[in-house]
Amino acid sequence: MRLDVVTIFPEYLDPLDVSLVGKARARGQLNVHVHDLREWTYDRHHTVDDTPYGGGPGMVMKTEPWGDALDSVLADGYETGSHGPALVVPTPSGRPFTQELAVELSERPWLVFTPARYEGIDRRVIDEYATRMPVYEVSIGDYVLAGGEAAVLVVTEAVARLLPGVLGNVESHRDDSFAPGAMANLLEGPVYTKPPAWRGREIPEVLVSGHHGKIARWRRDEALRRTTANRPDLIERCDPSVFDKKDREM
Ligand SMILES: Oc1ccccc1-c1ccno1
Fold first, then answer.
1. How far is the CA of 144 from the centre of ligand 1 (A)?
2. Using CA atoms, how far apart are residues 194 and 27, in angstroms rounded to an integer?
3. What is the model's pTM?
4. How far is 146 from 160, CA to CA, in rounded Å?
5. What spacing in Å lies between the alpha carbon of 47 and ligand 1's midpoint?
6. Do 206 and 218 form a contact (C-beta atoms < 8 A)?
7. Contact 111/138 with Cβ under 8 angstroms?
8. Residue 226: active-site member
9. Number of C-beta neighbours around residue 104 at 10 A
10. What was the ipTM of the complex prediction?
């Protein structure tokens, strides 16, 4: 997969050099290019924004730098359709970014991110590129950020971990919250590791019982408990089989 990010804060994307994404890049599973939008400005102040038509607070990001930047990035040659790039526009007014959308994006060969600052990007930029490729306007949550770069980091990590071979243990994302399967849509329950006792706190006995059916049922019950407490909206989306009382098959 190829990822391009056009931003006025390229250093904000430095975390893409480390951890899971950094390792995927080093292994050649991910090809990441970060571009400074100001390279496509030609005035002394490298201006990327201007006042909004119709008045109102804040500034709007101008069409010309974005158009020149995206034309340059995309000039690397691309096909249209499912083998071509998709534009990913982080915005508070976008569709919610979910695991399902992460899976959809992970199946594309090329994502071009356009994190905005200020009040956003002149709409004509999105409309222009929507004539050439799919555009995903995505929100990472119901809150307001100063810009879209943090959202690019979130989306990139969620997508990269789904790429074949990136996660060492293929089981890892099988058990993800929201991963398909009977426990889909349940939040993960508590996890424990050695030592068996810590500051007088023991681990749940069932986890060292060796009874895999009871362990699976305990984990299901804890996941249901946490989901009921923190995300009751997800309960109605659960597979009915998660509510059965018998021990779970491992
Ligand atoms: O708040 C934002 C500002 C700019 C770009 C994106 C966002 C955002 C907020 C939530 N998801 O994306």
1. 6
2. 32
3. 0.91
4. 24
5. 21
6. yes
7. no
8. no
9. 15
10. 0.99
